[in-house]
Amino acid sequence: MRIDAIILRELAMPLVRPFETSFGVTRKRRVLLAEIQSEGLIGWGECTAGERPHFSGESTESAWTVMTQELGPMLAAENPQHGGDCPRIFWRVRDNRMAKATLENAIWDLEAQREGISLSRLLGGVRDVIPCGVSLGIQSSISELLAVIERELGAGYQRIKLKCKPGWDVEVFEHVRNRWPGITLSCDANSAYRLHDADHIQSFDAFDLLMVEQPLWHDDFYFHSLLQKRMNTAICLDESIHNRRDALAAIEMESCRIINIKLGRVGGFSEAIAVHNAAQERGIPVWCGGMLESGVGRSHNIALSTLENFTLPGDVSASARYFAEDIIEPEVTVSREGEIAIPDTPGRGYEVRNDLIERLTVRKETIRAMELVS
């Protein structure tokens, strides 16, 4: 396909309510979007990098720089036929996976439109609906958290995930389990603990959790393996898994029993499918994690979650949980049964609201192949 233009934008999108993790509090998202124009079609991608380099080494600013100065010009000079061509195009740039995913995922969207099929079908998806869980940030009090959980259970979500950290864990789990002994419950530490906390983390076994997500170092397999051997509860790895090789290493070392796949973290759909397949071949279930995406990134997560081994509810929640107005239509909604129906129209299945995108845009840059010099 011929790349006519790549338009990069930064949008300022305030969250409906603050979202707190062990890293800190997010109140407003700086959303980076890529609009790729090709032969009358437009594909969209979203960068999931945070405002600061806390979840990963990437940030909004670093991703903008890499896309405008490196990845965008590389892609504009090519004629990719498939989203899977992007890793080859970007090979000179090390890491920067969230920036790479922004552009690669837009090419997959374009390819699905060109083929006249839904993005989920192009990826190899097998589901008409996907089950949804919800990720709840750290609250100001346990009573406030219980009220939030009650609201989300009433909305139909099938799994409740609690962000946790030292000082906000066991007492919280006790209150939640006493109130709702039968719900599917998990926790996510975002690397907030260390191995000297192993006895404390092992006490989480008492709360019948679906998983404990990334309790130790963000780049670790070995110590997670030691911890998993001590625990009945499954450890899920998130930040540690960047590609298929990482997934294979973690599985071989028995560092986890579940893997969270995030499109940005692994560099786009190509590697996400590879991680999915590696886990499936070895009997390890996966699920799709969220990064406070707008509707563009959320629609990509929905398509990815239709693959066969996404057997656990992901963090693909309704648009209204995060934004007063989302930049897609229709907005993502979750049924009373805690499910999202999969669009069957070509591409992502959600139209962008160009007027709202323009209104929210705080900077913009266009890259064209004709502007490049050899």
Write structural notes for this entry.
- This protein is an alpha/beta fold.
- The chain has two domains: 5-115 and 354-371, 2-Layer Sandwich (Enolase-like, domain 1); 121-351, Alpha-Beta Barrel (TIM Barrel).
- The protein is 33% helix and 22% strand.
- The strands form four sheets. Strands 5-6-7-8-9-10-11 form a seven-stranded parallel beta sheet.
- Helix 9 (244-252) links the parallel strand 9 (235-237) and strand 10.
- Helix 9 runs parallel beside helix 11.
- The chain is globular, with a radius of gyration of 20 Å.
- CATH class wording of the largest domain: Alpha Beta
- The assigned structural class equals alpha/beta
* Counted beta strands: 15
The CATH homologous superfamily name of the largest domain equals Enolase-like C-terminal domain
Report the span from N to C terminus.
20 Å
Main sheet: which strands, in order across?
5-6-7-8-9-10-11
Oligomer: single chain
Q: Can you write the helix and strand succession as a string? A: EEEHHHHEEHEHEHEHEHEHHEHEEEHE
Major beta sheet summary? 7 strands, parallel
What is the helix content? 25-40%
The CATH topology of the largest domain comes to TIM Barrel
Low-confidence stretches: none
What's the overall geometry? globular
Strand content: 15-25%
Q: Write down the Rg.
A: 20 Å
CATH architecture of the largest domain: Alpha-Beta Barrel
The overall pLDDT average reads 95
Number of distinct helices: 13
